[in-house]
Amino acid sequence: MNIAQYILNDVTPLSIDDVVKEAQLVFNKLTFSHIPITENGVYLGCMSETDSHCFDAEKPISECRYALEQFFVRAQTNWIDVLEAFAQNSSNIMPILNEKNDYIGYYELNDIISIFNKTPFLHELGSVLIVEKGIKDYSFSEISQIVESNNARLLGAFISKAERDVVQVTMKLSNAGLNEIVQSFRRYSYNIVSEFAEDSYMRSLKERSDYLDKYLNI
């Protein structure tokens, strides 16, 4: 997916020769968490809003150079990697550099999230199922086979948690035969992490049936 259309240039980066007060003024006007800092057009890093209020307003940014956070993405970076960069750096803007490390613009977090919102994983109607299994025992090919063998479609899946020797896989499924899919995953030794009304209903029926059998056998 080409995300070049989301590159913005409406806010000019500050120069390393500007004073901290210039950064403070930018943060007072905008909702940015960071502001890019350049030197002769070359990107040096970002000053955070928090740091800008910790320094003397009349102090040159050059004297605060050690506090700059040096995160960025390239123009050709995939949108998933861009989203990951946002998360890793707790930022709502992401500087974009070319191969010469020249600053060419920035992405806003909301724009990149809107791309994710348009993917079938979120946009299509369906159900979310979370399963877990040993890290050496699961496979996405097996997961796809289980889903598709029950006449359902896998709209998306990702590893949402990895802890010790167990991974959790979150998937979005079409709404066909959800209970049958859940039972199939159990037969393949997957633990079902998420709860479903249909699955809970079947379990409740079984518990009532077991109780009735026990009562009749008294």
Describe the SSE topology:
Elements (H helix, E strand, L loop, with lengths): L13 E2 L4 H10 L4 E6 L2 E7 H4 L20 E2 L4 H11 L3 E5 L5 E6 H9 L2 H4 L3 E8 L5 H9 L5 E10 L2 E8 L4 H10 L3 E2 L4 H20 L2
Parallel strand pairs: 1-2, 4-5
Antiparallel strand pairs: 2-3, 5-6, 7-9, 7-10, 8-9
Helix pairs in contact: 3-4
How would you describe this protein?
- With 218 residues, the protein is of the alpha+beta class.
- It folds into 2 domains: 4-116, CBS-domain, CATH 3.10.580; 120-216, 2-Layer Sandwich (Alpha-Beta Plaits).
- It is built from 8 helices and 10 strands.
- The strands form 3 sheets. A 4-stranded antiparallel beta sheet has the order 8-9-7-10. Strands 1-2-3 form a 3-stranded mixed beta sheet.
- Strand 2 (34-39) and strand 3 form a beta hairpin.
- Helix 3 (79-89) crosses helix 4 (109-117).
- The longest helix has 20 residues, at 197-216.
- It is elongated.
